[in-house]
Design a protein that fits this description.
single chain, 134 residues, mainly alpha, 4 helices, 70% helix, 0% strand, disordered N terminus
Length: 134
């Protein structure tokens, strides 16, 4: 059966894996953001910490929406945006590890990126081919 002919409630297995792995990654990102040190310093004010927290929450919600659009509404363009977000995350993570070394928060981000890579792989293989249409 051609996946593009499936009815909207019958999501292919690889698309389910894509969605699940990306939601797991975003859950880890949420936990990482929640556990982030929010102690004000001379360089980082309470207002800046609050703004960073709000921006992180908005970004996570936007990424959740993009995963939903791709998996449930069969849109292809959100996958490209998710690839871009992944590349930026890896670039940022490499900089953090270079400056601070491997710590708990960067280890969590490594797992998050690995989950995203796995999910993206599933979105291009097996019965996911032909699912995303626009």
């Amino acid at each position: 059966m051609n996946p593009s002919n499936k009815i909207p409630g019958n999501v292919p297995g690889n698309v389910v894996w894509f969605e699940a792995l990306l939601y797991m990654s975003l859950t880890l990102d949420s936990l990482s953001a929640a556990l982030e040190d929010r102690t004000p310093t001379a360089e980082i004010t309470q207002d800046l910490i609050a703004a960073n927290s709000i921006i992180a929450a908005i970004m996570i919600l936007l990424l959740v929406f993009l995963v939903w659009l791709a998996a449930q509404r069969r849109k292809n363009w959100p996958r490209w945006v998710l690839w871009g977000a992944l590349v930026l995350s890896i670039y940022s993570l490499a900089g953090v590890i270079d400056r601070s070394g491997l710590q708990l928060d960067s280890a969590i981000e490594i797992v998050s990126c690995a989950l995203t890579v796995g999910g993206m792989y599933f979105s291009y293989t097996g019965d996911a081919k032909g699912w995303f249409n626009g």
